[in-house]
Specification:
By secondary structure, this protein is an all-alpha fold. Helices cover 56% and strands 0% of the residues. The two termini are 36 Å apart. The model is unreliable at 1-8, 293-301, 303-307 and 309-328 (pLDDT under 50). InterPro entries: DUF2336.
């Protein structure tokens, strides 16, 4: 529940003192209330109404310097009540309105930076879509305490280690609810072979095609360091064994292989992220389905997609040779 004026300090004592003709505490009260108003993370109706009622009544009675200071404090704040603006303008200190954004990107940036703005689902989806390629906007959204970690999954690549951990835990809570069929074993084999041959382009192409990732998927990581984090999620989703992933880390790129700390951090990420969670993080990062159904790995036995005409014995021979492997 965002704090409103109901949770603000009780200034009734100061207000009572302000009625003493020997004391003039109205400038103090006005400045304190202005600071409390600006510090509030959300300007809800209660705090707007309370601030307007008090400030609009005090502004005509305070000295010129106090009125000027209050106007400077409120400069650029988009939520200044109309009554307060009118009272300051009457004193000769108009409060400038925030400049109108020139583009949709600037409007989205201003919205994300406004702590009092209530961001709905549709607006958040638009902001996240833009933030995937806008690092500054991504950092602003990651810094908002009112957006749950699960909703910030598309910005995992931009997140700090602590934020990544919170996002991963939130995604993991629901990832296992969706089926995660095993990837074709041939995919892991081909990736290991390409890495052993140090054929980076063939490796990237095979991994992208195997998971159904968008073209140039590594470009989603603006930071070159984060590209291997993204690659690690993809290797986990591709169902590589831990030893195979370590082999890739040690052979695909010399700069990574020479850093023990970097290899250790990648192995830790691979080990601590379930396959279903890695898949769902990739879905969020790219905004597209990943490995919803790998081609050729599943043939339904029932339903409209089932192939007719095969006998039960033939179907049994198809199923029995498959080796059970962990999927999380």
């Amino acid at each position: 529940m965002p704090p409103s004026v109901a949770g603000a300090p009780d200034l009734s004592g100061l207000i009572e003192l302000s009625r003493d003709p020997a004391l003039d505490l109205k400038p103090v009260i006005l400045r304190v209330q202005t600071d409390l108003f600006l510090a509030a993370p959300v300007h809800d109706r209660a705090i707007l109404r309370e601030f307007e009622s008090l400030a609009a009544g005090l502004i005509p009675t305070v000295d010129e310097e106090t009125a000027r200071v209050v106007a400077e404090k409120l400069k650029g704040c988009p939520d200044v009540p109309a009554g307060v603006r009118a009272a300051l303008e009457a004193r000769g200190f108009p409060v400038a309105l925030p400049p109108e954004p020139e583009t949709e990107a600037e409007a989205d940036r201003a919205l994300a930076e406004n702590p009092g703005a209530l961001i709905g689902t549709r607006v958040l989806d638009r902001l996240l879509a833009r933030a995937r390629t806008d690092a500054d906007l991504a950092q602003i959204l990651l810094g908002r305490p009112d957006i749950p970690p699960a909703d910030l999954a598309p910005l995992w690549l931009y997140a700090s280690p602590e934020q990544r951990s919170a996002i991963t835990q939130a995604v993991e809570a629901t990832a296992a609810l969706r089926p995660c069929p095993p990837a074709p074993r041939a995919l892991a084999t081909s990736l290991v072979e390409h890495s052993h041959a140090r054929d980076v382009q063939a490796f990237i192409t095979a991994l992208g095609r195997g998971l159904g990732l968008p073209p140039n998927y590594l470009g989603a990581a603006v930071d070159p360091v984060a590209r291997y984090d993204l690659l690690t999620l993809a290797l986990r989703a591709a169902d590589l064994r831990e030893g195979e992933a370590v082999f890739v880390f040690l052979t695909l790129n010399d700069s990574v292989a020479r850093s023990v700390d970097r290899v250790f951090s990648l192995v830790t990420l691979f080990r601590e992220t379930s396959r279903a969670t890695a898949r769902d993080l990739l879905c969020a990062i790219f905004g597209v389905p990943v490995m919803e159904r790998a081609a050729g790995e599943h043939q339904p036995l029932h339903g409209p997609e089932a192939k007719r005409g095969s006998t039960a014995a033939e179907r049994l021979r198809t199923v029995l040779p498959m080796r059970l492997r962990r999927t999380s």
